[in-house]
Amino acid sequence: MKYSRIHRLLRVITLIQSQRGLNARRLAEACGMTVRTAYRDLEMLAAAGVPCHFDEETGGYRIRGDFFMPPVELTLEESLAVLCLAERLGEDDQIPFMAPALRAAAKLRGRLPGAIRELLETVSPHMEIRLARSMPPDAARDVYQTIRVAIARRRALRCSYEAAHGRHGGGQHVGDGHAGRDADGKLPAAGEEIFTFKPYCLFFSKRAWYVIGHHSGRGELRCLKLNRFTRLEQTNVPYAIPDDFSLDSYLGKAWRMIRGDRVYRVELEFDAEFAETVADTHWHDTQEIEEREDGSIVFRCEVAGLDEIVWWVLSMGPHCVVRRPRELAERVHRLARQTADRYGPARGAAQMARGRQPLRAGRSRRIVVTHSTAHAQEFSSRH
Q: What are the residues facing 320 on neighbouring strands?
């Protein structure tokens, strides 16, 4: 990345304050400049009164810790928690689009007292956070940025969205007669629809980013997956987010994020082999655990809809038995039988025959974002 001189000098200050042992060569590599330019920048900082000096002990440059602003008054535990989250989740895009947290962590390190920094350097390299792999970091970056700016400016979006085939719930429905024409006057492709969307909330859940907002085609709030938008256009139509809206109120008693129309009282029995693992985890806000003398447990909760919890039950295999409701037991039975049937002798031979055929390339999705880049850049520069 190319920097202006002011930008580069501030970058040099931030790097020196946040890392030990940075010599001219490493500064040059970090800022994309020559070593000679790095020395000129260091001389310029000294001439401007920045208390920067070379530390023989660390083999790098240092700036007095109280330069610019007093050290942040965080305890070791607070510093460790904030930096661990920011650095571990920001690196490698464990949560897509959170890379700026890594830069924020570097700035925070530079503002911490020296004693805290030294303790952090002995502990933080030995703490890790590993989340489940999520959507590719560049899969919907423009969509994320455009929606974020739309929320900040409170301006509606004109969208085209491709729902998952055969899915229902969470707003991923198609073919209901609400499709319109896009900004160029073209009809949407099969499986897509054009609608006005007023985003209320961006949230990351499990492996992907989602947005909740008012969907003009449905006339209600919907939850949409960011990487399924195929076209996104900012408009000048203002809107307001209701004061009583919250993510918790929208999700209600959903098992995870798809709230059904009916609330079920669920009762599951786990054998002794899985009982401890299930009981040790907070799966749902309404859960209750009843322990039995034989080591098994009864798990009870109230959920809105069965579309998500049925897959969780199936993931437990033979270690879980549904006691109630009957609808859930029947769905688990049906899906388990269908799964077993796929491994029957006849199906097995057919699957093996298909397995010898070359794989077809997966379908890619092209996302078109219009009238958003300038707004996004303007927003980023101001915020």
A: 270
Query: Position of tokens 């269908």?
Result: 338
In a domain, 131, yes or no: no
* 8 A C-beta contact, residue 234 and residue 220: no
User: Domain check: are 122 and 224 in the same one?
Assistant: no
247 belongs to a structural domain: yes
Number of domains in the chain: 3
- In terms of C-beta density within 10 A (0-12 exposed, 13-18 middle, 19 or more buried), how is residue 145 classed? buried
Residues 171 and 145 in one domain: yes
Confirm if 33 and 22 have CB atoms less than 8 A apart. no
Give the model confidence (pLDDT) of 126-169 as tens digits.
888 887 777 776 778 889 999 999 999 999 999 998 876 544 33
Same domain, 145 and 120: no
Q: Please give the share of the chain, as a percent, with pLDDT higher than 90.
A: 39
Q: What are phi and psi of 151, to 5 degrees?
A: -65, -45
| Final residue of a structural domain among 126, 160, 176 | 126
Looking at residue 378, its pLDDT comes to: 43
- When computed from its CA atoms, the radius of gyration of the chain, rounded to whole angstroms, is 27
> What pLDDT sits at residue 89?
79
Task: Name 197's bridge partners.
Answer: 157, 215
Q: What is the pTM of this model?
A: 0.64
Q: When comparing pLDDT for 320 and 30, which is higher? A: 320
The 10s digit of each residue's pLDDT in 271-308 is: 999 999 999 999 999 999 999 999 999 999 999 999 99
* Cα–Cα distance, 55 to 109 (Å, whole number): 18
What's the N-to-C CA distance of the chain in angstroms?
20
59 alpha-carbon distance from chain centroid: 38
Quick one: pLDDT at residue 169? Answer: 36
